[in-house]
Amino acid sequence: MVQFTDVFKSYENGTKALRGISFTINDGEFVFLVGPSGSGKTTIIKLLTGEIAPTEGTVMVNNYDLGHIRFSKMPYMRRTLGVVFQDYRLIEDKTVYENVAFAMRVIGASGKEIRRRVPYVLELVGLDTRTRRKPQELSGGEQQRVAIARALVNNPRLIIADEPTGNLDPARSLEIMMLLQKINELGTTVLVVTHEKELVESFSKRVIAIDAGKIISDGMDGYYRYER
Amino acid sequence: MRGNRFTYYIREGVSSIFNHGFMSFASVCIIVACLLIMGSFTLLALNVDNIIDTMESQNEIMAFVNETFSEEEARAIEPEIERIDNVDYAVFVTRDTAWEDFVETYENSTTFEGLDSSVTRDRFVVYLKDISLMEETRDALTYVPGIDYVRASTQISQGFVRIRNIVTLASIGLVAVLFIISLFIMSNTIKLTTFERRDEIAIMKMVGATSTFIRWPFVVQGLILGLIGALVSFTLEWGLYQVLIQQLISGSGISFLTVIPFYRVSIPLLIAYCAVGLGVGVIGSMLAIKNYLKV
Ligand SMILES: Nc1ncnc2c1ncn2[C@@H]1O[C@H](COP(=O)(O)OP(=O)(O)O)[C@@H](O)[C@H]1O
Ligand SMILES: [Mg+2]
Question: Does A87 touch chain B (CB under 8 A)?
């Protein structure tokens, strides 16, 4: 579960990125977060992952209060999240399999667990025939599937994707969204940041729209306001 | 810790060393250079100390008794001499014994024919507790009633004490400076790896790896470099020491006995080298990775 309560965020240079944001995402939901460039979407994602702390207000993620979390607890909070970025962020000299296995290994999973889980996740994202390839040998859509597999492999409660289709053509974008929807149907909460209107409208999901650091609409079935 | 993790740390640490072969080599060289200088100065200090110790046990002040004193009168001075603070003990030598020793030493010489024991005096051979106080002790001895004059080789002993003090000070200073230099080079070598792996580190953090887990491969890298440096320095120091001893014994008057044999210092030296090497490795790697673990 995610809960923002009256969250303000000012960066060190004085930019007020968020100006009083409150929303709740319950377990099992699929939510789009939309808004123009610079409206504060990535700031919300960084608050969720603990990369930055709120200036004011409270951010709760999977029962962790991120304004007051102990530094040593942060890794355990992050294990409840899977994060996907626009630029994939894969390790270039590792194969598809190794990229996904890496995420398990570095949180101390055993070789046995890794060998059981990684093939399952790669099959889920449709990459079971690509496991020995390096990222450069894959298309953008395939690379993003690797990133999704990596986000999924530690069985997180929440998947967060920041403009996951920003570098993809419309057909690939739709496939990635459908994959995220499938993952959501398997029980994982999904939060997707995007500013692609058509994409949002083709899924009837909850949409939180922000502009200039404030929520301007929060509605169901693909509905949202474009402007204040 | 699961075996899986341990092998992961080792494998990552070792591969980092080979991925930056040149810098790894350079940092090992710097550590070796630093340890060699540290070790050489320490061994020098130990040897000077040893020489001073030997001199303390050998070095003696001759206190000559007034000619007019009878043997009984002369012997009666002994308690007066031993009352002086720095005097360990004094041995009385009659003029006849001294004469015999003298003649024996210069057995084949004819220079002393016609002289007899009356030219020598009764004397005390005075042994000291602390050689650095030789001058004061000599002065004190001249004030003992019945002692005419005193002979002591204070110059040599003072020289050695001064060398010891300088060497000790220089060693401490050098060790401190070289330790910091080694740390700097080590942390910069490992920083190359952390920089190259910054994306990997970011992913590790993103998926919830603990700081300890992220840190270990770099610490292993530092430990291995430090250990290699320590072992190489130890071997080189060993060889260097043997060569220097040979030079010293053949080239100067210093006797073989006053030089400390390497086997007597080898274990402490090896332990000290490993401690410094591993210390530099661990602290250097901690410094290198510090900035990446903040968020
Ligand atoms: N690290 C930063 N330092 C200062 N200002 C920032 C920083 N990151 C983002 N901003 C500013 O905060 C605002 C919101 O940025 P961001 O959350 O990245 O928007 P979005 O992801 O919706 O495009 C923008 O005005 C941006 O310039
Ligand atoms: Mg953004």
Answer: no
